Amino acid sequence: MKAAPQAQQRLIDLQELDSSLDRLAHRRRTLPELAEIERLNARRAELRDQIVAAETELGDLEREQRKAEQDVDQVRTRADRDRKRLDSGTVTSAKDLASLQAEIESLGRRQSDLEEVVLEIMERREEAEARVNALRAEADGSASELAALTERLNAEQSKIDEEAGLTTTARTGVAKDVPDDLVALYEKLRGQFGGVGAAVLYRGSCQGCHLALNTVDLNRIRAAADDDVLRCEECRRILVRTAESGL
């Protein structure tokens, strides 16, 4: 392949612009805000599950407390009824009086036990309410943090996109100075070799693979015409000669 030395030099300019675009694309993909947003979204998903579980537990405890309070009320009502019978004087049999007194005492003990149950449930309910409130507060805080992160991410992406747009415009202008067949070869090699399709020969070394060329290859390059498009024998990238090639 043949191309004017000036066109080959412009190929290096094209490579530099493409490398800049690659770096910008990499920066955009690896912005720290992206990782933070991913971490925060994962935590928010955990919080949603934890809130549902905590609210379910709280609902169960509320029902359990209502049931326990109803049991207390039923025992208290029965005990009050028995006391009224005892105080009314309608029960005259000593045996019946003893039995009624024993039942009132038993109901008193039962009421005391049930009230302890209610107190224990109330403590557990307060703890559950505290967990729900704490989880909701964290969820609200994470929502604010996510909004701030998203705003910062959008700003950073906009800056990168603006720079990429200017670089792309410059690339379009440079590409016009390079023959189509040379651009096609360059693009093919870029795809094969990690985004670098052309490299400068600097002081006897290829700047694509950073290996020093041997004497035979250097002599071959010295003998080549100025418009010959050369390839590195090691990495097969397009090799562009400059005043500092060491020839």
TrEMBL record:
Residues 62-90 are annotated as: Disordered. Residues 14-193 form the CT398-like coiled coil hairpin domain. Residues 62-87 have a biased composition (Basic and acidic residues). Residues 205-239 form the C4-type zinc ribbon domain. Gene3D superfamilies: 1.10.287.1490. This is Uncharacterized protein. It comes from Actinomadura logoneensis.
